[in-house]
Design brief:
Elements lengths: L8 H14 L4 H18 L12 H56 L4 H8 L3 H11 L6 H4 L1
Length: about 150
């Protein structure tokens, strides 16, 4: 039953729609519920914008349908913004790691000459901690083994 469901825009809109259908041939009751529902929502503490004075449940239903559409749109926009922010952060992390890989390979090549393929692959798949550790060791190392052991 809808009364047992949480009090949110979607459930309210469904209840009002059903009530409007049931009371379509009872204008006095329709008007009474149109006046009472916003008061009940306010008393229950439902955080919805103040509703304009409405003539009947059909208008109330349309108002809630608009609020629901707006709420869904706002939620979608918030989700997109969060996704973009997370993607941006991951892009920055990847760019930083790729930069460290290039710097490490360049320093090693300048100091020890052409790198063996296995080492190039190892560097490309290294964790951030490994890269930082290897970069710290480049200056003092006498050979590649001194860095990668």
């Amino acid at each position: 039953m809808l009364v047992d469901k949480p009090c949110n825009l979607e459930n309210l809109q469904i209840c009002i729609e059903k009530l409007a259908s049931l009371l379509q041939n009872h204008p006095e009751l329709n008007r009474l519920f149109t006046d009472v529902i916003p008061v009940l929502l306010e008393l229950r503490g439902v955080d919805e914008p103040e509703l304009p004075k409405l003539k009947n449940l059909e208008e109330l239903n349309m108002t809630f349908a608009k609020l629901l559409k707006k709420s869904r749109k706002e939620a979608l926009i918030e989700g997109i913004e969060q996704g973009l922010e997370q993607g941006f952060e991951k892009g920055i992390e990847k760019g930083r790691k790729d930069g460290e890989i290039l710097v490490l390979q360049r320093l090693l090549t300048r100091k020890f000459g052409t790198l063996p393929d296995y080492l190039t692959g190892k560097i490309a798949h290294a964790s951030q901690q490994e890269l930082e550790s290897w970069l710290d060791k480049v200056i003092d190392a006498d050979n590649l083994d001194g860095i990668f052991q």
